[in-house]
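Task: complex structure prediction.
Instruction: return structure tokens for all chains below.
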Amino acid sequence: MKKSSQILLTGHGEASMKSLFGAVSQLPGVRVQLRVPCGSEHDFTAGADIDADILVHFLGAKAEMELEALAKHGRQSCPTLIVSDHGVPDARLMRLAMQAGARDFIMGPQWLEDSLSALRKIIQEDGYTHGGSRRGLTAVVNAKGGAGASTIACALAYALATREGLQTLLLDLDLQFGTQCLRLNLDSPQGLVEALESIESMDEIALTGYVAKHASGLHVLNRPEREIVLPGEIDEMRLKRLIELAHSYYEHLVVDLPRLIDPVFNLVLEQASHVIVVMQQELSSVRDAQRMIHIITQDLGLPIERIMPVLNRYERNNSFGLGDVERVLSLESIAVIPNDFKNLNRASNLGIPIAELAPKSPATLAIQKLAETLAGKRRPEKHGMLGPLFSKLLGRV
Ligand SMILES: Nc1ncnc2c1ncn2[C@@H]1O[C@H](COP(=O)(O)OP(=O)(O)OP(=O)(O)O)[C@@H](O)[C@H]1O
Ligand SMILES: [Mg+2]
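Output:
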């Protein structure tokens, strides 16, 4: 188990970086390494002799190039802060920072104080990552509308809470048409919107006052009951805080994420340990999955290892077989959930989890297998030999 947080400080701007280095070194329980890349060097982290828990990059005069380089090297596996002592960055810089996986973009006259408080927060909140006990967040998203993401999110969260014994929260982010409470026959007078309104003064125990509690032990944070929330109306910083707070109480979060690429989508994926992309057994759905995976890995920069493609409503005798799906996606070992309309339809109409209604049904068993993988009991599905071709092919999307 690591005893201290390893912080790698990279970038340009000698005087400012020196101040930052001095101040960060004073934080309790941290070890900081300063790495100033020389000349045209763009791999800022290469050559560092620590296994960084947090990367802090101080932007120099060629901010755009630096962010491009960071983004090109892929989303960093550790939380990343981008710091600048300049004014407000333009939209392109923000976008590049997002692609590089930045958790925060700190700028302006208070940059030093703000950097320190951001670091303190990350160290505190990511404390659980040390020792390898990172809590999970699984985002479930449809490649194509109606492919079954909400059904899978619900059944998966139930399996994690009951079979895997994990304190689990199902977060319904389908803000306009979410159905998670209905699926579990739960009432929730308070939900996400009310929780976000009070987030500043809330602790993790107070958060549990806003969730609906299923008899199985699964908790659900409902989409707004009556209000219509329009895209862009959710304050991302508040949602981020809510997710962080939820993580300090729950061992696993399952997020029913609508198919809308926006800052909320990006924020959730940034926190996700796994992203389940749900598709059906038809070419158009698989093509959409290919495009969705491309957006998530190439544009948003998530590592491919975090993506779990799931083929829902699978039928062995469908002429567009599993092999065809693997070929289109250039991926192997895609998880399948068999077609089980009768049971799932009944379960959803009665507001009973499918595992309670049909515990031995193939769909229940397949979802339980998925839950075991997420809980770390099974080895994650490996993206096999076709993997190297993946980005090449996706490049053509
Ligand atoms: N494995 C399955 N076998 C048979 N039917 C399924 C399966 N998974 C989901 N369904 C059915 O597909 C329909 C759509 O699924 P669901 O309710 O999960 O919506 P969704 O895909 O989240 O839709 P939206 O895009 O609107 O959010 C439902 O009627 C559900 O019962
Ligand atoms: Mg849905």
